[in-house]
Structure formats: structure tokens, C-alpha cells
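call fold(seq) -> C-alpha cells
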Amino acid sequence: MIRRFARPAAAAVPCLILAALLLPLPCSAEPPDGTLAGMIAGHPALERAPRVTATKDGRPGDAVNVAFIGTDAELHRALAVAGWYAADPITLRTSVRIAADVVLRKPYEHAPVSDLYLWGRREDYAFEQPVGDSPKQRHHVRFWKSAEVDESGEPLWLGAATFDERVEISREAGGITHRIGADIDSERNKLLVDTRNSGTLDGFYWVDRFHRHREGRNGGGDPYFTDGRLAVGVIIVK
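ret:
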């Protein structure tokens, strides 16, 4: 079954513009036309959606740049079919393994990711796609499930997608930490391309001017930049 939507009232998402034409993206990963043009619906959780995650000690973290609408099972299926792996939880065993695999250049498709916080809690799920034979570089995204649901009873999954381009020893914690690439739009676009090409999306739309500030730094001090748009993918119901 494919989910369909009616166009919302103009006040459904105050201060946000829903762009239904799937405008070309300023990067090499350019999603194809979607199926939602003319059938756009703003999820109620968008109205008060946070723009930036936070570290455990309250510093700004990675920027929110992508979202999906669907159930827990639909989100996991969409990411799995698109070639993304669910991250392992952070434990002593997984922490030792990722450190060893970085040094030994061994693959670890389910390597853990550090926690970030949104809505006062850490991520519900994290997914990744490794690059090469080491967990040193990877595409990854964290997701938080909204408490609000749409008229179909489904939540919004707010996500922060970034690319881990290298590892360093953390000055704060003393362990291994990743440094992200500055172009977070490319990671947002890649995730859309992967899920769209895998056939798991009904379509997607843009929330323009989601971010008022186009540049920032995350909790590790890594700079990033964005065009300010949030991409919202609608997962096909199976």
C-alpha cells in the first residue's frame, strides 16, 4: 500500500515553506523527481522541531537535516534495503573493537556512534554505511522519534546525517572520536538518493529555511555548512 496525502492548510507548518517540486540539489548526489508533487502534507511534529542536536553536556551538536515519516519497522527496512547498517550500542566490547579495527584497518559495519540528544534524550537509532575497510570513515545518521504522530498515526523521525572523515583522540574524553565533513547537505542528499533508489520511498519534500543559520560547529568543534533545507522522506507502507 502506498501512502497518499492531501495538501495541508497554509497554517499547518508556521514559518516553514514546503517545496513540492523537488528542486535540484547543489551537489553531485541529485535525487530524482518524487511522487509527492501536488500531494504535500506537513507532519505536525515539524512545527516545533528542534534544529540542532546537543551533546550530553548541553553544547550544540550536529544539525538536523533529514527526516522520514513511517513506523519503526518501516524505517529499519528502508535503511537496510538502501544498504545502511544499524549501529551497535556503545559498550566496552564495541568500543575496544572499533578502536582495534581502526588501527588494524578491519571493517566494522555496525560500529557504534557516540550519543547526541534531541527532545532531551539520546538518539533512538543510528545507522551507517562504511567507506573502505576501516570504521575510520563512514556515512552515518542518528534518528529521534517524535512524540506527535500524523493523521495516519505515524511519527516523524528527525535525523542528523554527517560523514565521518577521520578519527582523533578526544581531548575531552581521552578516547577515539570522529571528525565530520563540513558539507552536511551532501550526506542528507546521499541518504535520499540511497533510499529513493532502493524503492522504499513514496516520495519526499523539502522544508525551506529550516535553518536560519547556514554555518555552525558541532560539539567537537567541527565546522559545517548547509543550504538550510530539511528533506522529509515518506516511506512506502508494505
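The two ends are 6 Å apart (CA to CA).
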